Amino acid sequence: MSDLTDSPQRYGAVSRALHWGMALMFLAQFASALAHWGLERGSALRDALWSYHTDLGFTLFLLVLLRGIWGLANLANRPAHGGPLGQAARLGHAVLYGLMILVPGVRILAAAGSDRGLSYLGFQVVPPRAAEVTWMQLPAEWHGEMGWLLLLVILGHIAMAVGYHRLIARDTTLARMA
Ligand code: HEM
Ligand code: HEM
What we know:
- By secondary structure, the chain is mainly α.
- It has one domain: Fumarate Reductase Cytochrome B subunit (Up-down Bundle).
- It has six helices and two strands; from the N terminus they run H-H-H-H-E-E-H-H.
- A two-stranded antiparallel ribbon has the order 1-2.
- A hairpin with a 2-residue loop joins strand 1 and strand 2.
- One protoporphyrin IX containing FE binds next to helix 1, helix 3, helix 4 and helix 6.
């Protein structure tokens, strides 16, 4: 049991599985977004990478909710973040969570208020509307921009974890998530 939950020395098996599993899924999700942005319409590679964007994005949304609940339940037992750099790390992690919820959230809201409805893995979760609900569409206008911002914050996060903690400070920060 103790290996499943977090401790002040390291993140437990559940937190690590969620962290690295979702990191791989984000890689695939950004590959899909990059293909949509950069490849020619009608290209087979673009179609293949784009085909899973909605289902994987919805899965990431469900997983981040689960991860947030698990993180809150383990908050008192997680590795501490002391000092100004630790405060900055906590703020950075909060921004990551905020964007991980908002980016898919606004598109899911838009789909739920659209004349096509919201489907997930082939199931119609919210039926099509007779007319689009305007206010539900508006936040989705920033979906792409917020998505790219999330990518930037993730790259900063990786630079801190590997570049700073592992290579410069040579501390145990990376080891406690590895
Ligand atoms: C964490 C999950 C997600 C990430 C990181 C993400 C990221 C992105 C990014 C960066 C773009 C811009 C691509 C471009 O400029 O061509 C984009 C576009 C798009 N995404 Fe997502 N997405 C996610 C989830 C979703 C979900 C759940 C849906 C649908 C319910 C969705 C539907 C779309 C659509 C329709 C577009 C094209 C229109 C637009 O740019 O708003 N995405 N996504
Ligand atoms: C090569 C890729 C990555 C590396 C090396 C890495 C490394 C780490 C490390 C070492 C920690 C522990 C930091 C600490 O305790 O202060 C951590 C935590 C965290 N990472 Fe990453 N990370 C990577 C990718 C990602 C991605 C793609 C995301 C999500 C968008 C992410 C989101 C988080 C969050 C939110 C935390 C806080 C702990 C939690 O609630 O899970 N990381 N990461």
